[in-house]
What we know:
Elements: H1 5-9, E1 16-20, H2 22-31, H3 41-47, E2 82-91, E3 99-112, E4 119-129, E5 135-138, E6 141-145, E7 171-176, H4 181-185, H5 198-203, H6 213-227, E8 236-243, E9 252-257, E10 262-267, E11 272-282
Amino acid sequence: MAIDYDKLMNFEIPDVEQDLTQRDTILYALSVGLGQNPTDADELRFVTEHGPLQALPSIATVLGYPGAWLLDPETGVDAAKRVHGEQGIIIHKPLPVEGKIVGKTRVAAIVDKGEGRGALLYVDKELRDFATGELLASAPSTIFLRGDGGFGGPSGPVKPAHRLPDRAPDTHLKLETRPEQALLYRLNGDYNPLHSDPAAAIAAGFDRPILHGLCTFGIVCHALVKVFGDSQPERLREMELRFSAPVLPGETISVEMWNDGSFQARVVERDAIVVSNGRSVFN
């Protein structure tokens, strides 16, 4: 089934009401690697209630999660060939560590790159306070639909990628991932077997299960908050990046940062860029 542009643009994705608990907030932080040093007071504020507890801003990517709605055949998408291309967050208010929230997800735009070249699906998610309707965060993303080009949709506009400075990074921070990290991260709601089933990973062309892209996003967010925000999560206003290559659980991620808020990330063991065109804004 080919994409029907009007049908996909107006595809109804049900709102998700979520009763966020402190346990959810702690689990998320642990799943993206915080707490590996149990004496680090800055990290303990994200993984225990003694600090008091704070939310890592990247949790916005998993809150109000609409599930694998692209698997619905009514979308017309070849879901087996979809790739998470870009992810961002915009923080409008400091995120709560508990309470009832609503996730509202919609298709924002579709770009047809042409036959054999795929398509770009731009998706926006808003997180709102259930009681007041107040906007807490936005989480725009780009999905690359490798098998869906040439359906006759518009050829633009394409969101431009942030350009990194043409010089060496000003600083970097290395963060280790754990061999079982994907198995923990999936408890946030993404149970794609690519991240947990060796047979599924091999079928997809990988030697073993890979880390969720949004787990990498959370690891990078941790590094940015630590370096640019002095471990104060409320200082992060915006963050966006492009996924360049997968991370294997157990590898070391070096987040390379420029003083203007730009960043990229590479896997140390393979010297491979896994995140590119990163941009962040702090106050």
